[in-house]
């Protein structure tokens, strides 16, 4: 459009009007149609301006219709189709905003004009499309009482709905649907529906008529007949496309006529027609449809009994038909649930055969459809009606079966041997059906349950045969084994074990006698899947069966004794499952308690099973009462206080936890009754359990301890007191005997262990197990005992003492708060006497004590001593808390890994708890941290987390490097966890911590480097850039120090900073003299990128995908705390330099030792072992790939490394490491400087090399780490003695002798050339001499052999040729001598 045209368009119209929107849409477009619209719109606006009218939608409508009317009145339009298309587009956008009253008043004239224009431009799509939209809008505004005037426009729309032009057809169909929606529910709806029904009567029978005509036509008219069929099918498909949105809007009577015509299309077996008809029927079944329940019943009856449709071979048609049945029955259930339930078996009979379909998509659709029908239509009312019908004795002879019975019969029929392909899907449907039937409908599920049981038995037999044959042939023949097991497990959970075993009895005795088939495969399922069953059923049915199996097992002459022993154990193992939420505990437990207790006493192998059952019975009833707020008088434990909790000897039993929640029928009143019954047996059961606890090995006491804790929590404290006093009395006797000057000749106490230490630990653990139900007086006695045991030097006893104290401090505030002063004094006094092994449990005490002192309900207890009389109570309390926190901080430096982890976890838990208990009053902690005082104290408003941070921060001014280092490590952990809350600490804390890099203590420097690494990971970029100069200044002080790998650590941190903040930011803050390090890092990263980019093809894509996944995993793992990665001496996080070497060459093993580890020799921490491997396709492995490490580990088969805590320790705390290679009774000799001398081992090469002068001195040299390196040291020493004065070794770097470097080939060749076996005189042959090995000679591999240059290869072959030549000469001489002797 040129500028002249733009000038005639007024732009001052109000925004939001139709004209403004059209101009905004088309004004800048270069399309001719858009330009034409702008011109026409400008002309119309100019006319309106001339008339002084505003460009409202009504005015635009009147102006456009006036113009169109004047053109139509002349009988022939004088305008071009382009102008008509433009006017139609403007009118279409205007009509949607014209009031309906205006359109209805001008309907007759407007519809007449538009009909004339549609008929006039029927062959021109450009003007026809907007005119159809206008005609549809006007027709939708007709008065329903004057529908006769709308017959012509509606007929035009309906006729053009079959137009061959897609866009025209789409506009016409949208118009028809819009008119139907506008007149729905009015008198005009019947007329409009009748028009559509007449069109259907004319079009839909067309394909069948054309097909019959083609069948009767002669061969000469075959082409015309096929063309007629194609046109009839095309018209039918176009009309079905209209019916899909229009059919739900039509009246019911007209809908039935159209549905009948569509059902006739299935007879033709034309896939496209069938699919389109199914989609139309599915739309009719949608929730937005107004179809009645009776009409929907007739429709579904016709669909499910239409054999021609279900026999189709087209998978898309079958899937759409299955979806139609599902949507139809769900809609029918919403309209009439009873009718849907009655007709449900018919749907199953139609869909179930599709489970045997050839295509997986059809089978999957049928399976999901059956599940949806069960979930939506088989409701509780239908199941109840079926149960009532079955209970009344009405079977097939009395009338038709119930809906649920029919569904069960249909699914059971799919498990027939003739339909094996349908078994996996049918079993999955069976599992859902069992869940829907529930315990109420268990009787209805009997036919299906029998079929499922047969399949499970077949799968079990096949698995047994496969095990016997040690192959997988049997397992491969039962692909339904998993589905069958899932269906049976669903039956056990939902139908209940009683009904399942009634239909499928175990028949254990009958199977042994040959009178039936034993269903032993059910026993593991009872243990895994039973819940909410009756405990009386187990005691009345399974317990006698277990006794019977046990009696047979005790007869050694019986051939089935071994099998009966296993069956008895499986029957007993099902007891915990029946103890999960049984509602008959009050009646069943007293009936079988004595028998179960007798078995517990006589059978140690049943301890874990029976204890798990007791634990569940006690815990779940207490949990129900606690949730209802009725747990008063049921113990003080806030959970399980297991005696072995957190200990290394914990052994979890596999059946401890119960996953299900309490059922709705499990009421608090029932739980209270159950608890009262269990309490009545507490004295007897606790006696039995306590005796078993003392008689069991420590590693197997876990289940018994949990059972004692659970039973004690619901018992009367008066019952527990004698048990506690007895246990503590025995402990006191053992303690007195251990402290006596003359130890007693015999043990003063029987049971509890083989040594006095084990016995004392046993009785302390037993006391802890009883603590959950003790009253305050007994807790006082327990606290006194623990207080004395804290001073013991036996680490095992001290550990149990701290576990007791931790429980009392954390769980029993009823005792701790009144005796807070004594508890605090006990904790503070145990600092000096606590052993390293007990630190982890002492930390739990400290955590509870700190939280108790900082809690709002803590009492005002005077903790001051005589020397602190001038301090206030609050100040003294803060000082005590700071002392406890300081001890926690020091524990992060403990040697024990678990203790360190516990200290870190305790810091985080304290910070979280204090932050939640006392959130900051300021908007963030940043404001508080700006005024932080490094000497302690802080401004008010910082909250609990700031208080903890201040306490830890005070350690930076400690007097010992150990304390300073521990404080820095603790600060790093807190900053790592609470980076968001403590983000403002960096401006104040970073400079102070970086100043510690100037200290001479390497311990402190190591911690500071770890702290800076945490800052580089967790702090935001802007904070790091602000302090970049200070960070680099402190780091680069240690960039040249390779001891403790500080040089590598600095490089790792600098690289992290560069990756996060950018190389330019780091380079700008780095001193010019140290920029070489950054240049080297950047060069190495660029080199890695080039290597990745050089990879080509699909291999590169796969490796990049794997590398990106590995990097994502590293990022996720990097967000969690790892003490080793942050503070370790190794550079595990550093990027390797060229050829995989780290920055410090001294960090790895010596060059002569790399990659040459003897069998059984371990790799030390910080050293790397080079492992060369190849990928699966034989190509060299890319060692830069993140997955290469995992692949090499899998290839090498290396097992996990043993930590320091895995070794036994002596009484002094030192590790005891046994030498597996040393012969019995022989100790390895220790070198003077530490370590052992391996020269006496059987696999040592020292005997072979004794003739080498100076070898012993070489072995004692600090540079020699192996026999091979000792040879080099000895050779270099002899060379140095014979060389000129002042001369160094053959190889030196920077004036320093490199004894660990690679020696030349000739030196190694002389060591193993065989010269030492030559005879000293004139005799020929070899002499063994003083060596213990047979004469040999070999030439070591030389890397020059791989050189491309021929001259280099020749040099390498010279020495090898000499060895081969000498061997040949010796062989020839020997052969000659042999021939001479033969003569």
In short:
The chain is 61% helix and 1% strand. The chain contains 63 helices and four strands. Residues 1290-1303 have a biased composition (Low complexity).
Description:
The chain has about 1400 residues and is mainly α. The protein folds into 7 domains: about 1-185; about 190-290; about 305-390 and about 400-465 and about 480-505, Leucine-rich Repeat Variant; about 580-655 and about 665-740 and about 750-775, no CATH class; about 775-915; about 920-1145, Leucine-rich Repeat Variant; about 1345-1380. Helix content is about 60%, strand content about 0%. It contains 63 helices and 4 strands. The strands form 2 sheets. A two-stranded antiparallel ribbon has the order 1-2. Helix 9 (about 150-160) crosses helix 10 (about 165-185). The protein is extended and about 125 Å long. It starts with a helix and ends with a helix. The N terminus is likely disordered. Its main location: nucleus. Belongs to the RRP12 family. It is found in: Nucleus. InterPro entries: ARM-like, ARM-type_fold, HEAT_RRP12, HEAT_RRP12_N, RRP12. It comes from Coccomyxa subellipsoidea.
